[in-house]
Amino acid sequence: MNNSFIAKNPSVLWFLLGLSLFTVLVSILSEAAGTALISTSFLKTLGKTLCLCLVAIAMDVVWGYCGILSLGHFAFFGIGGYAIGMWLMYDRTKDIVVTSLENNILPPTPDEITTAIGSQIFGVVGSSEFPVIWAFSHSLTLQLLAVVLVPGLLALVFGWLAFRSRVTGVYLSILTQAMTLALSLYFFQNDTGLRGNNGLSGLQNIPGLDDVSQATLSLWFFWASAFALGSGYLLFVWMTSGKFGSVIRAIRDNEARVRFLGYHVESYKLFIFTVTAMVAGVAGALYYPQAGIINPAEIAPIASIYLAVWVAIGGRGRLYGAVIGAAVVSLMSSWFTGGGAPDINLGIYVINWTDWWLVLLGLTFVAVTLFFPKGIGGLFDLLARKGKQS
Amino acid sequence: MSALLEVSGVSVSFDGFKAINNLSIQVAEPELRAIIGPNGAGKTTFMDIVTGKTKPDEGYVIWGEKSVSLLGMSESQIAQAGIGRKFQKPTVFEAQTVRENITLALKNPRKPLDLLLNRAALDTEERVRAISDEIGLSDALDQTSGALSHGQKQWLEIGMLLAQDPRLLLVDEPAAGMSAVEREKTTDILVHAAKTRAVIVVEHDMDFVRRLNCKVTVLHQGSVLAEGSLDHVTKNKDVVDVYLGR
């Protein structure tokens, strides 16, 4: 069984091999391993990129395989980040508060501790009360569950309402975008209890691991991200191959026909939408501790549109295409916007890439859509064809 | 001869236009039935109603021994109850292979988890073989179905219908765009299928209907104009008027 699974999907082996090699190489070059050819900040960038690749393959399954152009999967990613961020922030603040109150003559009561934590966290929004949604923030287990359950439930309810009413195509995309916009506006409000536009910060400090250096922590997160990407890849290859994959691709191409074959199309869409939302949540939960900060701007609709652009450029309908697209475009994006790309002096005008990168990305997207609908991944088809001919 | 499908007093209108007007048709099992009629007679709307795509304004659609109403059921439930449909334009999944297309249609559990956990019947491969033999596509099993000729796509779709193993087959213009040889073969497949199940064929082409040699229902303006053997209905004055006169 296992044998035939890999035999049927040779790309899995290549992908996992490449990912392992990459992980080993980066580990050896990292500061934690001593060679320090890769700085800790770049190691974090690479780890974050792996998380973006994970959410990109989820997007590819929902869009490239099942034909649902969701403009909301980055919101699920952000929710995963918030869910883990709440625990990180709570527990770390608690450590600090308890240490600072230790020197008091009278031992602090639990109430005093809670108030002190509250005023530390919510001081920026002029409050010290714990909002209801922080009820589980003391428990790592519960917040880890929230990482998958909150995006999953949201996708389940939203998807059920949308698919049941047979909303498809552009209308569904608009609806998911509206959901994303509503969510980010909700997160922006101070009343929501997630520190409004300040977001959650200090997430790179892991409670209980104060003795571990950032160099080592970053390597651990890099490994966790690589493992998550590998597992997610396997999960999605398993889902998209075989008869289940055949049904969802059929839904993408002709939904009505699949209904007349006796399949309950809505269940399939809902299943895909929910599972990919959960994976997006996991990716977000691994990303934001490496980024150190999350704020509502991260889940604004534009982020989900970028996600679709990555998948389109990388090549829809093939998982490794999504990985390539997310990695290449997001790394290039941080190179261009981070001032890495040299300005181009045209004499009369200087092209400053921090401003012009988005224009370049937009033009690339248009060009890929018009001339290379299969994206970068399509190049592999050309290579395979050449290989067969020679 | 008890009816497998009983459509009675069904009417449906789109924006005031009555596409189906007090239509009643009964089909037995097994039976081969042809439905003919000029454009806009309501043939396709009739199929839409039976398969659950369109909900009628009034009337009943009753199915099977237990006399279940099909009106409250979704398209997928109706398909699972045993009604298969072939569309006018061949609609196969062009990006997938012939084998995948047939496997999709095969009568097997159809819930998402059943498929993920691979709860299919063990004889899947044999059934795919048997069906591809019947429709003459055994050699093309691993070919992408988009690469098939028009006639082969029609057969593949008929094969997918057979794979569903429905009790009632609704076939919309199966002979459209086929060569003479292909038509003959299509006739054979349909006549053979109708030995064990009910088959309703909607067709424009009179020669094709003549070859089916079965009971004919003539639709006009959304209701039944005449019913009987082809010779009988073609002698009917109303039918002649509708087809030739006016």
TrEMBL record, chain A:
Topological relation to the membrane, as annotated: Multi-pass membrane protein
Any coiled-coil regions, as ranges: none
Main localization (coarse): membrane
GO molecular function, one term: branched-chain amino acid transmembrane transporter activity
Superkingdom of the source species: Bacteria
Regions that span the bilayer: 12-33, 71-90, 142-163, 170-188, 220-239, 267-287, 293-312, 319-336, 356-384
Pfam family, one: BPD_transp_2
Subcellular location: Cell membrane
Keywords on record: Cell membrane, Membrane, Transmembrane, Transmembrane helix
Gene Ontology, cellular component aspect: plasma membrane
PANTHER family: HIGH-AFFINITY BRANCHED-CHAIN AMINO ACID TRANSPORT SYSTEM PERMEASE, SLR1201 PROTEIN
Protein name (database record): Leucine/isoleucine/valine transporter permease subunit
Organism: Planktotalea frisia
Highest classification ranks of the organism: Bacteria, Pseudomonadati, Pseudomonadota, Alphaproteobacteria, Rhodobacterales
From TrEMBL, chain B:
Chain's gene name: lptB_4
Gene3D superfamilies linked: P-loop containing nucleotide triphosphate hydrolases (3.40.50.300)
UniProt key word Iron: no
Occurrences of domain ABC transporter (ranges): 5-246
Top enzyme category: hydrolase
Name this protein carries in UniProt: Lipopolysaccharide export system ATP-binding protein LptB
Record keywords: ATP-binding, Hydrolase, Nucleotide-binding, Transport
Organism for this UniProt entry: Planktotalea frisia
GO CC, alphabetical: plasma membrane
SUPFAM superfamilies in the cross-refs: P-loop containing nucleoside triphosphate hydrolases
Coiled coil: none
Enzyme Commission number(s) of this protein: 3.6.3.-
InterPro entries assigned to the protein according to its UniProt record, in alphabetical order: AAA+_ATPase, ABC_AA/LPS_Transport, ABC_transporter-like_ATP-bd, ABC_transptr_urea_ATP-bd_UrtD, P-loop_NTPase
SMART domains linked: AAA
Single GO term (MF): ATP hydrolysis activity
